[in-house]
Prior knowledge:
Mean pLDDT: 92
Distance between the termini: 105 Å
Bound molecules: adenosine-5'-triphosphate, magnesium ion
Amino acid sequence: MTSHQIRQAFLDFFRSKQHLIVPSAPLVAKNDPTLMFNNSGMAQFKDFFLGNGTPPSRRIADTQKCLRVSGKHNDLEDVGFDTYHHTMFEMLGNWSFGDYFKKEAIAWAWELLTEVYKLPKDRLYVSVFEGDASDGVPFDQEAWDLWKGIVGEDRIILGNKKDNFWEMGDTGPCGPCSEIHVDLRSAAEVAEVSGKLLVNNDHPQVVEIWNLVFMQFERKADGSLIPLPATHVDTGMGFERLCMAIQQKTSNYDTDVFQNTIQVLETLSGKRYGSGEEPFADIAMRVISDHIRAVAFAITDGQLPSNVKAGYVIRRILRRAVRYGYSYLGFQEPFFYKLVAVLADQFKDVFTELKAQEEFVAKVILEEERSFLRTLESGLKRLDVITATLKSKGINTIPGDEVFELSDTFGFPVDLTALIAREKGLLIDEAGFQDALAEQKKRSRQDAAKEATDWIEVREADGVEFLGYDFEETHSHIVKYRKVKTKTGEEYHIVLDRTPFYAEMGGQVGDTGVLLVNGGDKENGGRKINIVDTKKENDLFVHISRDKQLDEVLQDAGIVTARIDKYRRAKIESNHSATHLMLSAMREVLGSHVGQKGSFLNDEVLRFDFSHFTKVTDEELSKIEDRVNEKIRENIALEERRNVPIQQALNEGATATFGEKYGDFVRLIIFDPTYSFELCGGTHVPSTGQIGVFKFTSEGSVSAGVRRVEAVTGEKALELMRAQEAVLNKIKDLLKNPTDLVKAVEGLLDERTALQKKITNLENEKIQSLKAALIENMETHRTFNLIVEKVSVPSADSLKQLSYELRDQVENLIAVFGAEIAGKPQLSVFIAENIVQETGLNAGKIVKELAQEIRGGGGGQPFFATAGGSDASGLDNALEKAKGLF
Ligand code: ATP
Ligand code: MG
């Protein structure tokens, strides 16, 4: 079976068992503060397990793009070194939300593996949870009995809490699990050692393929477990490992999932994969063919490489791949981006989003590669300096903090530093590096520290109803709340059964406003609770308040009035609708390749990142602005359609943003169906005229292939114009209200240039006449001619000019000048070069001595030196002293 057939067979099998097949959620996790990337199939269904939402069906199956490179699941360091852990992989899964439980889950898993995929039964082992006394959870007798009836006791292994008890997080649903392992060794090896002994022992050919989790408990914040009212099934099977087992390979990389990319790498490098001649070249090909998937799909789903958070994780994966290519496959030029095309074709029917953005993704990767290759070079230079210094001191270990700096500042992976060090006969201080790293991690953990209590339930509710599209105010009940300690203080997080508050999403900030308890009037025992922000946590709308001591009020409150700040909301809506009008205008003016890559909008500005490869010219910006303002003046009424089946919306040509997770039913925001037609969950103006006016304030680059514009609307645009007008008026005022301002300023500038010229000429003339007077006053001696004078010149430079010009006219000259320039005393000493040679006199020494009189210091060369000081009254003394010296 090909990998495509294997995937399809999984989905078909569960469809035949009445499961609804859903698409994968994007790789990048949204609205989940605990996750950067989706790392398992269940991540997108969390809310259903937590009871915050209702699933579209009680049975669901899919293939989910997963990434395990951060947080609880981080397999990055194993990837490439072993043959069955990936950064990005597909997790095939089937779920029961309060529907079937262990019996069906186990029977179906066995049926699929042995009857559909025809995996040999004598090569499969299963594990069952042995129980844990400290948690008071017993041995999973039910699973044991079910498996015993299918595989027999000798193929069942007992597993401990670490391997066989699954938890969503520190708190939340959890339960025992049952894993299925497969033994892929040769018959000879199997005859020698039983596979049973190798399960869960990191043997590359005896691996776990499927994990069946049975959720039946909930973990509370104090560590205790309580039974869940309804039990659920959550299974996850590694698609690439399954392909290895079915295609009878001993490595995931030998399956058709990876072979296409590996073949391209072979062609590009001229090396053969698996020849065994260069083990590191094999590792490099595995690393690269794995990492390109993670990087390409992350970018596709909207996570661009950057130097913070999730973006930094992607950048590091990319760099790891590039550096393996650089070190072991001889790739000194960008190569990684070339693999995008291979993947885009391979997945064109499964994850269509990559094919649709192929060019963009390849360009982003190419730019990243270029800049990393440059970094790699400067890092190598830095490393050269470090090693040379160490060697000259006879030290043979690179200190940990240097290694850390190389990795932190130059993006230089430690293993690369170690490798190069080894080539130069040096070691690295691994422990010291780990210390520096731990120190940095500690700092960033402290930054992120947040402490939350359990939710305190106030009353029952089925999910949350968002009414903010239609209402500014609702009568609601408090469902639950919790207290959260943050760096800045304590917050209350409040959940309502219905709310008009929009929670931050899709770039639109959360609403602010108030909750009024008992009408909010203090005198009548009421209370006004200020809401400073609203955020989404999965599907919950969390209203955030920084007011103090709310526990009692929240617990006792009956009906509360939830009211948003509608003036602020209106400004936000102007910015959101303007963003839609702008995107359409951009597509018209710049081309249809323009896609949204990021968006932020509040009541002041709108910021928008989009894919485009060159600077947007002023002319293009004006065109876009004109078009948006034209649409504003047309005063197009908002057409909002809710609950449209997603496929229908896309067929009608609605614009969707890659990487956004859309449900089966979507909301459409339309301002003239032939102009702006987008999938959007945000709030908008009732008609475009309300936006008033739209004006760009900036345009620039964010990263390779991505530009950013900022703009303002309505009142803010007016404010901007007023501010600019005020500056102009001030200038006009200063220029005494000329009729043509530009001409007046140009006139001023011309005049300034002319005056400058005049001054230079005058100064020159002055120096010439001064020169003549000085020569006349000169004392002539037998061996030298002496001038000691206080002069009036415009700058310290003039003293030099004066001395040099006199030298050209007077032989054997010694000239000492004093001058007061802008209130500060200045001295210069000139001694003709031949005198310096014959007598050893030194202008530098002399000027230092004279400078004492003006409380200053200076220096220079033996024939010319200058000094500045702070006491101008000492100038005469200085000159007197000078006369005595010669
Ligand atoms: P392992 O112990 O092999 O790392 P796991 O216990 O972390 O696996 P689960 O979290 O139970 O795995 O995930 C379910 C399935 O997903 C596993 O049975 C396996 O087939 C697959 N899987 C897990 N991690 C990876 C990975 N990094 N790359 C590829 N497949 C994986
Ligand atoms: Mg794991």
